C-alpha cells in the first residue's frame, strides 16, 4: 500500500531523517515510534509531499487516496464541525451531493452530529475527532494519523482507539504516529522505532514475549 525507500531529510545541515525504509501492507495498522525529535512527523510530511525530500522515494499503491489528521489540528474557529467538513470536502473537489450524504455520517461517527458549537468552543477530544472526520472525507483507503490521541483524557483515548480498530475492520490501512505505547500495542500490527532519523528496530505485535514499552526502553535507552 505504501513503500518508503531511503527517505532522507536535511534541516540546516542536520540529517533528521536518514535513509529510512519501510513498507505498510494493505489493511495494516502501522506505527512510527521514537522519542521527541526522532523524525516521525518529518517522515509523514515527506510521505504527504508537504515538504520536499532530500533523497529517497515514496510509492503508494495505484490510485490510493490518503486522508491525513495532523498532530495539532487547526480549524477556522468560527465554523461549526459541519461547516469545517463542508469546507474541506469542497477543497477536495467532492460534489455537493456526495457531501450531503457523507458529512452527517462522519459527524455521527465523530460523535459531533448534534453539535452546532463553533470550533473555538471545542474540547481537545472534539477537535481530534473532527480532525479524524476530516481525514475520512472522500473515504480514503490509506489514513495517516499524527498523534491522534495527543492531549486526550483516558476516555477520549479509548474512544479514539475503538474508532481506529473499527476503521481497520472496515479495511483501511493506517499509519499512526504516537508516543502512547499502550495505545499502539492495542491497535497496531507492526511498526518501526526511529532514533535520530534512523530506523533502529522493526516491531511486530506479539512476536517477542516483551511489551512494546520494554522494547522501546531497551532500544532508546530510556526517554531522552
Ligand atoms: N522546519 C524545520 N526546520 C528545522 N528543523 C526542523 C524542522 N522541522 C523539524 N525539525 C527538526 O527535525 C527533527 C525531527 O523533528 P520531527 O518533528 O520530525 O520529530 P518527531 O519524531 O515527530 O518528534 P515529536 O515526537 O516531538 O513530534 C527535530 O530535531 C526537529 O527540531
UniProtKB/TrEMBL annotation:
GO MF annotations in UniProt: ATP binding; ATP hydrolysis activity
One of the Pfam families matching this protein, by short name: ABC_tran
Matches recorded under PROSITE patterns: ABC_TRANSPORTER_1, ABC_TRANSPORTER_2
Keywords of this entry: ATP-binding, Nucleotide-binding, Transport
Record's protein name: ATP-binding cassette domain-containing protein
UniProt domain ABC transporter: residue ranges: 2-221
Matches recorded under InterPro entries: AAA+_ATPase, ABC_transporter-like_ATP-bd, ABC_transporter-like_CS, ABC_Transporter_VariousFunc, P-loop_NTPase
